[in-house]
Specification:
The complex is a heterodimer of chains A (about 220) and B (about 220).
Chain A: H1 2-9, H2 11-27, H3 34-45, H4 48-61, H5 72-81, H6 86-106, H7 110-119, H8 124-147, E1 153-165, E2 176-187, E3 194-202, H9 203-223
Antiparallel strand pairs in A: 1-2, 2-3
Chain B: H1 2-10, H2 25-33, H3 39-53, H4 59-68, H5 73-92, H6 100-109, H7 114-125, H8 129-138, E1 146-156, E2 167-176, E3 181-187, H9 188-210
Antiparallel strand pairs in B: 1-2, 2-3
Helix pairs in contact in B: 2-5, 3-5, 3-7, 6-7
The chains are: A alpha+beta (about 220), B alpha+beta (about 220).
Chain lengths: ~220, ~220
Amino acid sequence: MFTMQLFNQNPNKYQLFSKSMKKTVMAAIITETQSIKEAVTSINTIELNKFSRLLSRILQKLHLKEERTFSEEEEQKLQSALSLDKQDLSLVLDTTAFILEQAVYHNVKPASLKQQLEKIHLSPEKAEAFCQAWTAVCPDVVEKVRQRIFAPKKLEHVGWQLNLQMAKSTQAKLKDPHAVLELGVRNEDSESVVEKVFVEFSHQELLQFYNQLETVQAQLDSLT
Amino acid sequence: MSSSHAKVAVGASKDSSFLGGRIPSEIEIMAKQLKDLDQEMFRKILKAVVSAIEGKDCREAMKAIAENAALPEERLSYVVAGMYRLLKEALRIPTSSLKQEVFKEDLRELRIPEEFITDFASVVFGNRRTALEAVATQQGPRLPSLKDFRWRVDVAISTSSLARALQPSILMQMKLSDGKGHRFEVPVSKFQELRYNVALILKEMNDLEKRSVLKIQD
């Protein structure tokens, strides 16, 4: 109602109003701070195809939290390849990563990203490179980041074994099916160590467990 | 020679007692000790041994028996040891394989007095049998089993990396029978894998139970 009135009174004003609304939303992604200005200056000096390759490399590793995108040696090679000193290089890398992370966070459209980059005075060709790289991988990266869970321990692997118990020291002549579930749980801090949890189930116990899993599934289904 | 032939003729398909080819020494010694034991005393000891098999603490009962009995300690210990072994061995075998008559016959071979045989038989084949079998199922080597299972479904609305995440995840907490607890997060895809595998095992168990290998008579 309010907007209709506004439109009728002054159509141009309304357009300006909505445009400024859009602008404020867009500006939230990247603000032109001093370090951004410096980074942009450095980025604009880099050759276009080298920069495109840099972009795709950073995008590949964006969803991985702790890993460094480039090793020490790689960074040194980059320094000479891009004719940047160490400080400038790390500023360029950090800023590029930051821009991409913000793009992921807000899930921006490529066109909107381009506009933002031009606003912070990135050269049009570089902005275009960003745009293209982003268009290519955007949904995947967002999905991967979405699937990242914060948890000290995560279930990674499920294995099992079905045994037929024929006898034990306390009972002879059994024919008891028993299942052993092996759950591989990875600890957040230890990248390589997977803790194996073994749980044994009789037929009855397994049935109970399955019913509980079904309840969980019903809950998941009710979410969608 | 002739007695074993006679046994075969009668149709007994075994040539040794349910205790195996060699009778355990504690049972043989017990058999001798039972000769002039009073039935009252025997029943008291039997009761204590049965509750021990059930897993209950029977130290009080044993102390009481040891104190006021006219029985020397050494004799008591032989009797207890023999009884325990005998009952454990008998309870190990399912009732489909060991019939009461055969059991009694084997005990007669050991020259155990008839009244005591009846008492033994009433423990092994009586209505306490199911309780004793349940204890035996619980014992024996086992990997830890699931004592307590709790879960939680969360939806991550927003994270530091994504303003609108809307990603469900599951938190599971398992307490195992060895006392250890495990708490871990399960991504939805892994949960589906877990559920699928459990269903698969259940199906295989069902197939296994129907298969003819299980229908083999002992």
